[in-house]
Amino acid sequence: MIRGGLLLPLFLFAGSLTIGQENLFPLESDPGNGREVIKTRIFEGSGLWGYIDGGADIYMEYGFERVYVQDILLDGHPFTAEAYWMEDSRAAFGIFSVNRYRCTLNDSLAIPHCISPYQVLAVLGKYYLVLSDQEGSEAFAQIATKQLQSLQHRYLSDSIPLPEFFTGQEVRNRVKYLEGPLGILNGYPALSGLFEPFQAFSLFLLPLEGQHGPSVLARVDFKDPVSQNVLGKNLVQWEEEGEHKMMLQKRLDPFSLLFMMGNKADSVMLLPDLRHFEWD
Amino acid sequence: MGKNSSKLSRRGFFNLAAAGGLGAALTPLISKKGWSQDPQPKVKPATNVKDALTYDRTPDSMPGKYPGKVVQVYHENCMAENEPDQQAVDRMLETAMLELTGLTTLRDAWLHFVSPQDRIGLKVNPVAGKLLSTSHQIVRAVIAQLEGAGIPREQIVLWDRREFELHEAGFTAENYPGIRITGTEQQDAAGSFYDADGVLYGEKMIDKDWYYWAEVEEEYDAYTIPYMVNSGKYSYFSKICTQQLDKIINIPILKNAGASVTLCLKNLAYGCISNTGRLHKDLWSETCAQVCAFPPIRDKVVLNIADGIRGCFNGGPGANPQFITDYKTLLVGTDPVAVDRIGYEVVLKKRIDEGIQSEDQPRARQFMNMAQDLGLGIADLDRIGVKIIQMV
Q: A219 forms bridges with which residues in the sheet?
């Protein structure tokens, strides 16, 4: 929802998928809004390999249904729109979080988004939307933003719940949702070794940069308590192997673990909510 | 294909998991002795790589005439109006060829690898479309220099897996008159993948005498089969490389694939066989290395020209514009493993500079080590001789 010019919290607690989202894509020509669809292609399931070859793997990892690939004219400018219909809104956000990089944000957009010179990324419910302009024209960001403004009004409610410590305004534009080994490899490869023993897991991750170097806060969810145990032990061993390492962890339940690695002083400064948190 | 089957079929460990660190404050997190492991370790599917090793090597077999030698040419001003400058690229390639061979004329340098009687395939990479494919400037430079060496234009073939992707990336008869442009997977003029008898055009392009077998399979739906040609446990080599070419010049583009690179070996391995979708999940590294050990590739690839004029450092192998960069670099060598290793270093430096990762992750180089073990080239950095040339 949008109220005036205020930037609302991007992530609401989950509602149910509502009527209208299924019809969001493929886009139709809309002369009144300056949109003309030139060509539409659809790739479903494993057919994604036929579209982006090896790049399909990570979409499969997160849970991919289909993608609508459209060549369109927006106010006379040629764009490509790729609407990836993912398994759920969490998966759509996950793919988005792995791909966003050096973003400019627009206060008029309440959805997760990332504006860069050649591409605008956004999450609309279960859709991960990529608008691309191969020419990098100056008008691109403006036109793409206008399209998102018109589309987000049709997006009623389907947001992912964010866990504690990942919801604050200062962190929401940096948090990543990583799923499986491919998610880690693409989203935060520094942790690949730590997660090498595991197959099925997901995590919310917040990279932090402080005066003493990088830190990371992560909440991991496994499907079994054995894996949680294994990770907990490996985290302890990791800390013991380095003089200047700091690791804190908290078992939240039999399947979930919250941990922080790096420099404690920096992390607490960046996340005041952690100051009084009771770690294990 | 429903969502559940696609998600369940793709979950799994992608064999590029690597050790890594968290910058200055942290050290690499490598799976070590004494560290707890998952109680059910993953077992790799069997393959028929041993079959490849039964074939005698030839004088042209990988790693070719210059094992471990890579020429890295950097040209500060090789871009003009956001496109590679043709003259600059011509000079970069000429410089690399002369340096690699030590010969004094360009004609001799090219005839060192090919002859006018050879059917020569230029294996390009158009997968990521116009934004991030093998540049036309490097391809035109190669063609011009081959012709200058006396190679008839009709002996040159531009090829890749998918003929339609070549066309979409601008590799067309109009842009390359007199050059045969072809792919394993084809569509007719009406856009159909099937002929009048209902047979896939791609089915006619695979050579069932040459195959990469692996104990892993995936069922493809009707949408996907034209891009895979066949399902099951066999990946067949394309007739383009088994029957229609004598020599192959490999021209990949410098792209990352996670923390690794998709360059010489990947461009060859995944570009020459069918039914590749099943190989990504559990055998990515093995496929890159092992497929290249088979004679249709091992004995025909005489030169690798890695196009790093423009490439990407993240989001690869697809074209994500925010991660595209002008490396302004060509990497040339006969040894695809060594070229991949140096290309990896170029991409790694960029990824570190951009804050994508903090340091080298050895497991990301696993496929290169496998290729080295198969005798296809040199992966050890301290055994590779790199000649770096800076041009302006």
A: A204, A258
| Residue B151, CB-side half-sphere exposure with 13 Å CA sphere | 28
Cα A51–Cα A52–Cα A55 angle in degrees, nearest 5: 150
Q: Encode pLDDT of A77-89 as tens digits.
A: 888 999 999 999 8
Sign, CA torsion B79/B85/B87/B93: positive
Cβ contact A262–B25 (<8 Å): yes
d(CA B305, CA B314): 21
- Is it the case that residue B17 has pLDDT exceeding 50? no
Residues of B (131-170) whose Cβ lies below 8 Å from A: 131
Model pLDDT, residue B99: 98
Cα separation, B277 vs B269, whole angstroms:
13
Cβ separation B322–A194 shorter than 8 A: no
Cβ pair B49, B366 in contact under 8 A: no
User: Tokens representing A192?
Assistant: 């690949």
The 3-state DSSP class for residue A127 equals: strand
pTM of the model: 0.84
Residue B381 contacts A, CB cutoff 8 Å: no
Chain A residue closest in CA terms to B222: A47
Count of Cβ atoms closer than 10 Å to residue B346 Cβ: 21
- DSSP three-state, residue B203: helix
Residue contact A215–B2, C-beta within 8 A: no
User: Do B11 and A199 count as a contact with CB atoms less than 8 A apart?
Assistant: yes
Cα-based distances in Å from A118 to A95, A275, B127, B169, B337: 18, 40, 19, 18, 33
Which chain B residue lies closest to A241 (C-alpha atoms)? B27
Q: How far is B13 from chain A (nearest CA, A)?
A: 6
For the beta carbon of residue B224, count every other beta carbon within 10 angstroms.
Answer: 21
Q: CA torsion, points A99, A42, A58, A261, in degrees to nearest 10? A: 40
Q: Chain B contacts of A259, Cβ < 8 Å?
A: none
Closest-CA residue of chain A to B132? A134
First-last CA distance in chain A: 39
Name the residue facing A214 among B25, B42, B131 (closest C-beta).
B25
Residue among B299, B280, B273, B275 at smallest CA distance from B210:
B273
